[in-house]
Amino acid sequence: MRKRLTRIAFFIGCAAALTGVRVAGQDTAPACDGTGVCTLPGAAPADARPVGGRRFWAEKRLFTEAPPLEVARWLTDPPETKGKFLVIEFWRTWCGACKRGTPFMNGLQAKYGRELAVIGITGETEEVVRAYKGPKKEYFLALDRPKTGAAAGEGGDAAGQPAEGTIPREKGQGAYEALFGVWGWPHVVILEPRFRTVVWEGYPGQKGYELTEAMIERLLAVERAARAESGGR
Fold first, then answer.
1. Measured on CA atoms in the order 44, 45, 46, 50, is the torsion positive or negative?
2. Cβ distance 35 to 187 under 8 Å?
3. Of 35, 154, 206, 209, which residue is the least packed, with the fewest Cβ within 10 Å?
4. Nearest by Cα to 166 from 184, 153, 152, 180
5. 141 by DSSP, 3-state: which?
6. Which strand ranges, in their side-by-side order, compose the sheet holding 73-74?
7. Closest of 185, 87, 173 to residue 134, by C-alpha
8. Is 32 helix (H, G, I), strand (E, B) or coil?
9. How many whole angstroms separate alpha carbon 18 and alpha carbon 140?
10. Nearest to 132 by CA among 122, 144, 146, 119
């Protein structure tokens, strides 16, 4: 436990240093705002609000343990995830910012593939994704599991009660992204290798809070140092 808390403290320090202590299936027509994030009408929760100058289109889960990654189907070969950071991108085919961010995500996978796996997850159908004509995503792609519940598109158990950690959203939202409360796309979470703690989250293109290669380098450096200290384990 002590080692785990120490590692989390390292990652908190990284985030603070790099952000100036600012750590913080298509069923209806989407709308994209000035930041480039695309949402569906009525998807925003009532308590959605900026944190300082930073906005979130999902629940804030920084430095909490992520749920196990479970998808309905891999559209590529499944990635090797053991010992690697997971850069999980929740996206949609109709999302312009998702398209603009594809070259950056491709670059991360190409340059750091030995230490991380970039995974794109969508709640859309395989047919929709296969018909996608946007920039080619040269990383791992998967279809999210469908949410279950009494009403279409609602997460919950057999009795229709919301599952723990699940916020019912629009029809077509996947079960895994619902665990993060995602209601705007793209949303990215980065999970560190050992405990799958969320060490970065948010819209990767938000001005002043972008996900950058420098951030990735800093996160990887922390993990390399931790492994060196533990004798490579």
1. negative
2. no
3. 35
4. 180
5. strand
6. 73-74, 140-143, 116-122, 85-90, 187-191, 198-202
7. 185
8. strand
9. 27
10. 122
Answer yes or no: are the C-beta atoms of 84 and 116 closer than 8 Å: yes
Residue 209 and residue 22 in contact, taking contact as beta carbons nearer than 8 Å: yes
177 pLDDT more than 60: yes
Q: Which residues contact 44 (CB under 8 A, 6 or more apart)?
A: 57, 183, 184
pTM reported for the whole predicted model: 0.81
Structure tokens at 11: 């990652």
What is the C-alpha separation between 45 and 182, in angstroms, rounded?
10
Residue type at position 97 = A
* Spatial distance between the Cα atoms of 116 and 103, rounded to a whole number of angstroms: 16
- For residue 44, the 8-state DSSP code is S
Largest CA distance in the chain: 53
Q: How far is it, in rounded angstroms, from Cα 133 to Cα 231?
A: 46
Joined together, the tokens standing for residue 69 give 């990654």
How do 187-191 and 31-32 pair as beta strands? unpaired
Average pLDDT over the chain reads: 82
Q: What is the pLDDT of residues 72-111, one digit of tens each?
A: 999 999 999 999 999 999 999 999 999 999 999 999 999 9
